């Protein structure tokens, strides 16, 4: 298979620029918010609350967002999502204005940040399904796996550079102007997006009652052993292995490496995942996908345990790097399963369920980690999460032999025949 097949489509290249700018801005913003909030409170639970504030609207709106995405034109819907994010970024920029603490209390600033993060959760509930659906309208079915790999690689590259730049920019220009930079990247994403023309709506059931639409979407996801198994496995692993939410605590209080070290720690998993994803463009992971996914989740749990116990900066960076590398395997396989096994008219709803299972588990994982750190201590909480991830992978391998034997080569061959 041509490793650059998807890149030969101009619109897909523009799409990658949009996704890079958007993910870069979002991941950088989350890091800057984490740093600002922990600096205001010195309470690890406050980091968990950031995730909770985003996950509540994201989960509550997810299914309805999927229905709307399947009913609407995708390009303009994505324009609306990015515009909403830009408004939120502008609000955070104003909240971090120098001297604001002289007129506003720390508690008022903190609650205002939480409110904007809450609004961001509504935006995110639409963003993921819209992006997932738009990919399928830009490239032909036969190169879905290649397009999914490049899209995920772009996501990871932005996730590398966003947190890394966030850590350094906090040190160099402060929180306020870091927020300004984030706002600029969101505007850049909008400019790129307008170069992609509107796309046709492929759903034959336009105007379908919303509850019937949601019922059909859920029935499809829960009826597909491959999709449901992949989502469940990844959700539990991310939920209990969400050690990254506690990185400000490790950077400031355990490893004592400051904001620059924080940026390196935060970027390390995404660096590992990016290398995995770029390698997978030449060495596809679709053969024996079930076994590879289970092994990747198990290895992820081991890496989290090592990170949790480490008191050496270099060892912590290596553990996070390797956790990202194996997580990249998990992400590629999951995205390939979703792209290959989801009908065009259900992409919005399936992606919404995916965001509920996996995307939102990042924020729930952040809350779980923050709460566990408050109750058990930071190190114990991280090690506990890694152990739960190991148990999840082992239990899935034993309980679901069908998923363990999953191979995606047949699905790829069928799509090549269709095209």
TrEMBL record:
Transmembrane segments: 12-33, 45-65, 77-97, 109-138, 150-170, 176-196, 227-251, 263-281, 293-322, 375-399
InterPro entries, per the entry: MFS, MFS_trans_sf
Alphabetically ordered keywords of this record: Cell membrane, Membrane, Transmembrane, Transmembrane helix, Transport
One Pfam family this sequence matches: MFS_1
MF (Gene Ontology): transmembrane transporter activity
Compartments where found: Cell membrane
One annotated Gene Ontology cellular component of this protein: plasma membrane
Protein name: Predicted arabinose efflux permease, MFS family
């Amino acid at each position: 298979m041509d490793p650059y097949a998807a890149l030969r489509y101009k619109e897909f290249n523009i799409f990658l620029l949009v996704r890079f700018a958007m993910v870069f801005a979002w991941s950088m913003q989350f890091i800057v918010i984490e740093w600002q909030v922990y600096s205001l409170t010195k309470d690890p639970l406050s980091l968990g609350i950031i995730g909770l504030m985003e996950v509540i609207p994201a989960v509550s709106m997810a299914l309805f967002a999927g229905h709307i995405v399947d009913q609407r034109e995708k390009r303009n819907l994505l324009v609306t999502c990015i515009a909403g994010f830009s408004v939120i970024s502008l609000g955070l920029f104003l909240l971090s204005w120098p001297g604001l603490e002289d007129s506003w209390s720390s508690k008022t600033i903190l609650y205002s940040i939480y409110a904007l993060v809450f609004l961001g959760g509504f935006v995110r509930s639409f963003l993921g399904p819209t992006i997932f659906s738009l990919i399928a309208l830009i490239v032909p079915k036969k190169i879905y796996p290649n397009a999914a790999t490049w899209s995920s690689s772009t996501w990871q590259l932005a996730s590398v550079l966003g947190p890394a730049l966030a850590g350094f920019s906090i040190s160099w220009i402060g929180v306020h102007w870091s927020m300004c930079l984030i706002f600029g990247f969101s505007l850049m994403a909008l400019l790129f997006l307008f170069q992609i023309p509107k796309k046709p709506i492929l759903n034959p059931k336009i105007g379908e009652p919303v509850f019937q639409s949601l019922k059909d979407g859920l029935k499809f996801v829960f009826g597909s052993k491959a999709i449901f198994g992949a989502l469940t496995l990844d959700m539990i692993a991310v939920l209990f292995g969400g050690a990254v939410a506690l990185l400000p605590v490790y950077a400031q209080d355990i490893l004592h490496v400051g904001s620059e070290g924080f940026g390196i720690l935060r970027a390390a998993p995404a660096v590992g995942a990016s290398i995995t994803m770029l390698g997978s463009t030449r060495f596809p992971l679709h053969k024996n996908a079930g076994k590879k996914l289970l092994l990747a989740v198990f290895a992820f749990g081991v890496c989290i345990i090592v990170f949790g116990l480490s008191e050496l900066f270099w060892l912590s960076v290596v553990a996070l790097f390797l956790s990202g590398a194996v997580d990249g395997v998990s992400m590629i396989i999951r995205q390939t399963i979703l792209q290959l096994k989801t009908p065009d008219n259900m992409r919005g709803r399936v992606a919404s369920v995916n965001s509920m299972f996996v995307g939102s588990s990042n924020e729930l994982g952040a809350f779980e980690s923050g709460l566990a750190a408050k109750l058990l201590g930071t190190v114990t909480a991280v090690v506990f999460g890694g152990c739960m991830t190991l148990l999840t992978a082992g239990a899935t391998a034993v309980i679901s032999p069908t998923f363990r034997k999953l191979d995606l080569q047949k699905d790829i061959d069928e799509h090549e025949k269709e095209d």
